[in-house]
Write a structure and sequence with these properties.
Layout lengths: L11 E4 L2 E4 L4 E4 L2 E2 L4 H12 L5 E2 H8 L7 H15 L8 E4 L3 E4 L4 E3 L4 E7 L4 E6 L5 H14 L1 H7 L10 E3 L3 E2 L9 H11 L9 H10 L10 H10 L4 E10 L2 E10 L5 E9 L5 H15 L4 H6 L4 H4 L4 H17 L1 H14 L4 H13 L3 H13 L6 H16 L2 H14 L4 H7 L2 H4 L4 H14 L4 H13 L3 H14 L4 H13 L3 H13 L4 H14 L3 H17 L3 H17 L3 H14 L3 H13 L3 H14 L4 H18 L3 H8 L11 H6 L5 H12 L3 H12 L2 H4 L4 H15 L3 H14 L8 H13 L1
Parallel strand pairs: 11-13, 12-13
Antiparallel strand pairs: 1-2, 1-8, 2-3, 3-4, 5-7, 6-7, 9-10, 13-14, 14-15
Length: 778
């Protein structure tokens, strides 16, 4: 039989119980859309257009992926997904495998013309008038059938009436009522339904953060059940348009799932459906079916549902127990921080090692906690499993891989930008884009823009508000940073990062009382004690109070180790090594740097330890670490544009080769004001290339250029913060002014330096030397 030609006009194809609309890219069965990815739909279309003829694997791959090389396994996966979507319960029911050749359709294909245009003129749940303009003699049959269907099934009218929700509305998913007695369904179905609906670019869900905030405002426990009247009130308080109430009950050995969508203000039922599941293992498939129906019935286009509707068991896991653990972990993290949720996500992965979304989420949590090695492992595993995820989750996985594994922030920036355009109502791409992808490349204004967009969608979400405050701080806009931190606490639970913003602002204003207030509150917040204590240690070292700084550093390290965060502790140890080296304590610097490297081989640890060792004169060890960074992190933005230029510059200066040092430092110039990896978690390490470049110019007696480099650290206090390298830059700036003959500026700079060191330890040689140099000027 010859192949059916390509669709002309608005032709439909029909085989068995299925109908295909090539123009809309929609496959339906009994009027309900069948979820297929665009590529899987294309595979089916090729087979349909060849009717019962065999299509070779090569021809299928060339047709579906004409401009891309793909492996045969990709085709096999799409065939598997197609068979699953068609509901094949016996081998080759619709798609026949022809061994050694390819595939063919088992059913006869008919072309169904669509000249008819049916318009609903007036309708109610009990009465529908249908106008049919039709040239075929069987048109009256179609019209009569439609009227009969409309009269028999009120849900038909729900499907075909005007959209009941708009693209500006958000919906709240209430807790499912579990009447089965099986705890595996507790919270699991709500989580699964959320994953399904999050795939929609049309819908916006009320986030867990907003739910918990509303419950708190209602005087309820943040972990209270969200159901019944409570759900309706939460929906109203969060500005939601509809609340979705689900249920599951046993019917013999089978399960019955129900869904009712109500307008949370009027109580009007917007959608109501019931699905029966033959066995426990099919419950996730039933959830997928319910979610697809809901999306079409509230106004989302069939094409959108078709393109963004990966079945739940493929988007998450086939294991209900694993999904339950994942749900519990994310719930815990929302209210109590990432650290407590990690064991639950690890358990979910134990139950299903191929749970891609759990791996990726765990990777993000580790990254946010400064555990880069663990984050890399999870991001890599998620990337390997990314075919087991929805399109939305693949954006998340790809972003996590770019950020946490390769470290390529430009690639991450592009992925997040595309995600935000594809899912304009999704908070997370904007929230992530306001963080490392922009702040780590110096795009602070873009960070503010994206944070504003995320907050506009979800005012209760913490990360974009934190990024908003920090970007103002990095820009040196202290009043705006402080106001952003204050505003954030009105909408979200207390976060240690917000107290850190307040601490840094108070520190830059030389406000000891403000520093103490922020430090006390931050130390008491969940997960904030080690961070805040480390920030205090840096501030003490900045002022030359090394005895106090060492005590605070050891406290921060101990807290981090008690929490099982070895890499975070290693970063604090490396920071201690840097400030010991800055003040000329070479032996202490070497000891701290090597101790840090024993704890972790993380990217930031190796860099900061290498920097401290170079200042302490251990150049061979610094070279070894630089080589390792270059080998392991070939795409990494921080390594390429900050870490390696800085270390190579120091190594060249050791050999008195200022020209080579300046060449090595050149790649850092375009992103010099950006945040570095270690600054996100340990608040030091920024603008080091500028400092080393200043040293190179000093060595070459190019004092005006040296002054310009040192001034970068002095003039950007919001980027340097309390890093003791800022004090060394000020000291070298004073010396550069002196060498250039500018005694007035030299005296003013020395004066500022000595005022900042007024409480310094009496035995610091560099502080003494600076005081003597200043005295000679007077």
């Amino acid at each position: 039989m010859s192949a059916i030609p390509g669709a002309r006009g608005k032709e439909l194809y029909q085989f068995g119980p299925f109908r295909m609309d090539p123009e809309k890219g929609v496959l339906s069965r009994a009027g309900e859309p069948v979820p297929l990815t665009p590529k899987t739909f294309h595979v089916l279309l090729v087979l349909v257009r060849h009717n019962k003829e065999v299509v070779t694997k090569d021809d299928l791959m060339k047709s579906v992926w004409p401009d891309t090389f793909v492996e045969e396994a990709n085709l096999s996966r799409n065939i598997f997904m197609l068979r699953k979507a068609l509901g094949e319960t016996e081998q080759d029911r619709y798609i026949v495998t022809v061994p050694g050749r390819g595939y063919r359709l088992a059913e006869d294909v008919e072309i169904v013309p669509t000249e008819k245009e049916i318009s609903v003129v007036a309708a109610s749940h009990s009465r529908v008038q249908v106008e049919v303009r039709e040239t075929k003699p069987w048109g009256w049959i179609a019209a009569g059938s439609l009227v009969a269907i409309a009269l028999a099934f009120p849900g038909w009218w729900m499907t075909h009436r005007r959209p009941v929700l708009t693209e500006k509305d958000s919906v709240l998913i209430a807790d499912f009522a579990n009447a089965t007695g099986d705890p595996v369904f507790d919270a699991t179905l709500r989580q699964g339904f959320a994953v399904q609906l999050e795939q929609s670019p049309y819908l916006s869900l009320v986030s867990e953060e907003r739910v918990h905030r509303a419950l708190t405002m209602m005087g309820k426990n943040g972990e209270a059940k969200v159901s019944g009247e409570t759900a309706r009130e939460v929906c109203e308080r969060t500005g939601g348009a509809a609340v979705l109430e689900g249920s599951i009950a046993s019917l013999g050995s089978e399960y019955v799932l129900g869904l009712r969508a109500r307008n949370c203000r009027t109580g009007e039922v917007l959608d109501e459906q019931q699905v029966q599941s033959a066995k426990k293992e099919d419950v996730l498939q039933a959830l997928t079916q319910m979610a697809s129906r809901f999306r079409t019935r509230i106004g989302e286009s069939l094409r959108s549902v078709q393109e963004h509707n990966t079945p739940l068991e493929e988007a998450t896991t086939t294991s209900l127990e694993a999904l339950k653990a994942y749900s519990a972990g994310t719930e815990f993290a929302t209210t109590k921080g990432f650290a407590g949720g990690i064991p639950l996500l690890q358990h979910a992965i134990e139950l299903d090692p191929k749970f891609a979304l759990a791996h990726s989420t765990l990777g993000l949590w580790y990254s946010s906690m400064g555990e880069s090695v663990l984050s890399m492992q999870e991001a890599t595993r998620a990337y390997e499993l990314r075919e087991r995820a929805s399109e939305r989750e693949r954006y998340f996985i790809d972003s996590s891989y770019a950020r946490n594994m390769t470290g390529n922030l430009e690639k991450d920036y592009g992925i997040l930008d595309a995600w935000a355009r594809e899912y304009p109502r999704d908070t997370y791409p904007h929230a992530l884009l306001s963080g490392m992808a922009t702040q780590g490349t110096g795009r602070y204004e873009r960070s503010l823009e994206e944070a504003k967009k995320a907050v506009a969608i979800d005012p209760e979400l913490g990360p974009p508000r934190v990024n908003f405050a920090f970007s103002y701080l990095y820009l040196g806009k202290l009043e705006e940073a402080e106001a952003a931190a204050e505003e954030a606490t009105k909408h979200i639970l207390e976060l240690p990062e917000l107290y850190l913003v307040r601490y840094h602002v108070a520190c830059l204003r030389n406000d000891p009382a403000g520093m103490d207030r922020a430090a006390e509150a931050g130390s008491a917040s969940a997960g904030g004690k080690d961070w805040m204590t480390h920030a205090q240690a840096l501030a003490a070292a900045h002022g030359g109070e090394l005895v106090r700084a060492r005590k605070l550093s050891q406290q921060a390290i101990a807290v981090a180790l008690q929490s099982g965060q070895k890499e975070r502790a290693a970063n604090y140890l490396a920071a201690e090594g840097v400030y010991e080296a800055v003040y000329g304590n070479a032996d202490a610097a070497k000891r701290d740097a090597e101790a840090a490297l024993k704890l972790s081989s993380g990217r930031d640890v190796e860099y900061s330890a290498g920097f401290a060792l170079a200042l302490a004169g251990e150049y061979a060890r610094t070279q070894e670490l630089a080589n390792d960074l270059e080998k392991r992190f070939q795409e990494d933005t921080f390594v390429r544009f900050s870490y390696l230029p800085t270390l190579r510059g120091l190594l060249a200066l050791h050999k008195n080769d200022t020209a080579k040092a300046l060449d090595a430092l050149a790649p850092a110039i375009p992103q010099e004001l950006a945040q570095t990896g270690i600054s996100f978690f340990a608040f030091f390490g920024n603008l080091y290339p500028a400092y080393v470049r200043g040293e190179a110019y000093m060595g070459a007696k190019r004092y005006a250029e040296a002054i310009a480099e040192y001034r970068k650290l002095v003039d950007h206090p919001g980027i340097v913060l309390s890093d003791p390298m800022g004090m060394m830059a000020r000291l070298q700036l004073a010396r550069a002014y002196m060498a250039s003959g500018d005694r007035a500026n030299a005296a003013a700079t020395y004066k500022q330096l000595m005022e900042a060191w007024s409480g310094a330890d009496a035995d610091l040689a560099r502080v003494k030397a600076a005081g003597e140099e200043y005295a000679k000027l007077n």
